[in-house]
Design a protein that fits this description.
By secondary structure, the chain is mostly helical. The protein has 16 helices and six strands.
């Protein structure tokens, strides 16, 4: 009798131990899962602190997520760029690109890809471009603008080693009908061109992802502007990569800031996680964005006289006067001239015995990149890719004006479409810098952490209600109970 009772107690004690072990094991799994999810949600905060370890020439202040010091290979510091952009450039450019003259862009949208069959698929209707009907775009744009060759008076010729920072005092003599040596598209061929209202076709998320999109960027970087080694001291070998990387960062910023949050309700907004993953957690990409902005800004300020004298004729007299006024305010702004008189010093490039050869090589590579824009499978992505590549090619043309054969710089001649692309590109870069400054702030990063934390809590609740439900029904309210 006693023996039976002792065995019964041992059996009961064994069952209690087994139950307690199960409870402990269940709680261990739950706590571990919560720890993993919280660690994942807090990763942006953790990585954002890494910005403080960026080495010279720039640093990122702890907690502020703002870069300090001189922008590499440029002549302005990060704080000055942010200040001038917010106070002067961004407001002016926002107004400028809304005027009729700068709103309409002439583009070829139906070119065959010269490298591979076009198999890109767009998931959203926002991928398509809304073209302008014949009666919408400005009548003056339809009239040919050209100059007789005898009117193309050359500037004073100077040897290659001496870089002329000025342009002809009578720079503008009508919109030129000449091809851009830096880009592949024949801008003089109007037969296949169509006009697009850029205000109706904003650069934003389109759903264009996957192998087709990756193949474009892979071809650009691997075949035309491979990343330079960390010890590379030759600025000429770094400039093209930094320009394309900066442009890539800008495009990523615009996708993240104008993102389709909910396709069912057509809700658009900022995707902080995407912004962080693609740009903010990569200090080099942010630095290259600043570099590209200053490079293009330098081209605009160098062409100040030409742009000031240009004819902005869209047929809307009041709006054209406004565009002309905004251009003058931009290129002759005293705050900009005082804060950053020389955004980028192009005189340092293409010097020495290998200079002309490096310039020709860079020009050829950039032309290949412009040709790749015909391989973009998304129509709206192709539109903005072509516009911004043409804008960057126009900046290169203004700063270097080369054909690779002459020993002297060529006189500057710009097409109307080149100026439209240039100013819209500068506006895109200006918007990107503003977004990086605002979304890279502590408040934005904290919001991202809270956003991810709330998602984690929601996920835990859903797990509890589904596959963990049987455990929670039997589990005590505390592992110590």
């Amino acid at each position: 009798m006693v023996e039976v009772e002792i065995k019964s107690r041992k059996h009961a004690n064994g069952g209690d131990k087994k139950t307690n072990n199960n409870r402990i094991w269940r709680w261990t799994v739950v706590v571990a899962l919560i720890a993993v999810l919280l660690a994942t949600s807090l990763s942006p905060w953790r990585y954002s602190r890494k910005f403080s370890f960026i080495r010279s020439p720039c640093r990122c202040s702890e907690g502020s997520h703002k870069y300090t010091g001189i922008v590499e290979d440029c002549c302005c510091d990060y704080e000055t760029v942010d200040s001038v952009n917010e106070a002067v450039l961004h407001p002016l450019l926002q107004e400028l690109v809304k005027t009729p003259f700068f709103r309409y862009f002439k583009v070829k949208l139906w070119c065959d890809c010269p490298f591979w069959p076009d198999d890109g698929m767009c998931r959203l209707r926002d991928c398509s471009v809304c073209e302008c009907p014949e009666n919408e775009f400005p009548e003056p744009f339809k009239r040919p603008h050209g100059l007789p060759k005898e009117d193309l008076i050359c500037q004073e010729g100077k040897p290659e080693a001496a870089v002329d920072r000025t342009l002809d005092a009578k720079a503008f003599r009508g919109w030129a009908v000449v091809d851009n040596p830096w880009t592949k598209d024949d801008e003089t061929d109007n037969g296949e061109m169509t006009y697009v209202n850029l205000q109706l076709n904003p650069e934003r998320y389109t759903g264009y992802t996957g192998p087709s999109a990756r193949r474009i960027w892979d071809a650009i970087y691997s075949e035309n502007c491979p990343k330079y080694s960390s010890g590379e001291s030759c600025q000429e070998k770094k400039v093209l990569y930094k320009l394309i990387s900066g442009l890539h960062s800008s495009i990523s910023v615009h996708i993240a800031t104008d993102y389709l949050i909910n396709e069912n309700t057509n809700q658009w907004g900022a995707n902080l996680q995407l912004m962080y993953d693609r740009v903010l957690k990569h200090p080099e990409r942010v630095q290259n964005l600043y570099f590209t902005f200053l490079f293009v800004l330098r081209a605009v300020t160098k062409a100040a006289t030409y742009l000031e004298q240009a004819e902005y004729d869209s047929g809307n007299h009041l709006e054209d006067l406004k565009a002309h006024s905004l251009i003058r305010q931009l290129v002759h702004n005293p705050k900009l001239q005082a804060a950053c008189p020389l955004p980028f010093d192009e005189a340092k490039l293409w010097q020495g015995q290998s200079g002309p050869e490096l310039k020709q090589q860079t020009q050829k590579q950039f032309r290949n990149i412009s040709a790749l824009m015909d391989c973009v499978g998304c129509e709206k992505c192709r539109l903005w890719g072509k516009l911004q590549v043409l804008g960057l090619g126009t900046a290169l043309k203004i700063l270097f004006s080369v054909d690779g054969q002459e020993g002297r710089d060529q006189p500057l001649q710009l097409q109307r479409n080149e100026v439209i692309a240039l100013m819209n590109l500068l506006n895109r870069l200006s918007e990107s810098l503003k977004s990086v400054t605002e979304m890279g702030s502590s408040a934005a990063m904290d919001a991202l952490v809270l956003q991810n934390s709330s998602k984690t809590v929601g996920l835990i609740q859903r797990l509890r209600e589904s596959w963990m439900a049987p455990w929670w029904k039997k589990a005590p309210s505390s592992p110590l109970s």
